[in-house]
Amino acid sequence: MKNIKIKLIMLFAAAVIFSAGIVKAENNEPSTLNDLNIQIRQELVDLFKTPVPLNFQDKNLNGETEVVISVEKNGKITLKSVEGENNVLKHMISEKIESLNLWTDIKYAGKSFSYRFVSQQD
Questions:
Q1: Residues near 82 by beta carbon (within 8 Å), at least 6 away in sequence
Q2: What is the model's pTM?
Q3: What DSSP element (H or E) covers 71?
């Protein structure tokens, strides 16, 4: 009888611990268009903080680029355009952004965001 009580107490304690983790789960869905813009910007900042493997013949990555990112009908966040004078920099930025797999709510379908990248190497 005592053994059954101990098992019931352990089962109850485990249920309480695991249910607390489920209740505390975060909701990462943006509530406004501005929140989505902030989340995308943070993803881009994190992406470009990582070291860049330079597999290009021309290692000149100086310059400015304008990037347009939009939300598709299915909620996928995609790169629409990269404009700038340095083709090597444009290609590197395009590859890095296209490597992301970002999605959001379909209520933001058709919305676009513009970002400006400035790259200066010493």
A1: 65, 66, 67, 68, 90, 93, 94, 97
A2: 0.67
A3: strand 63-71
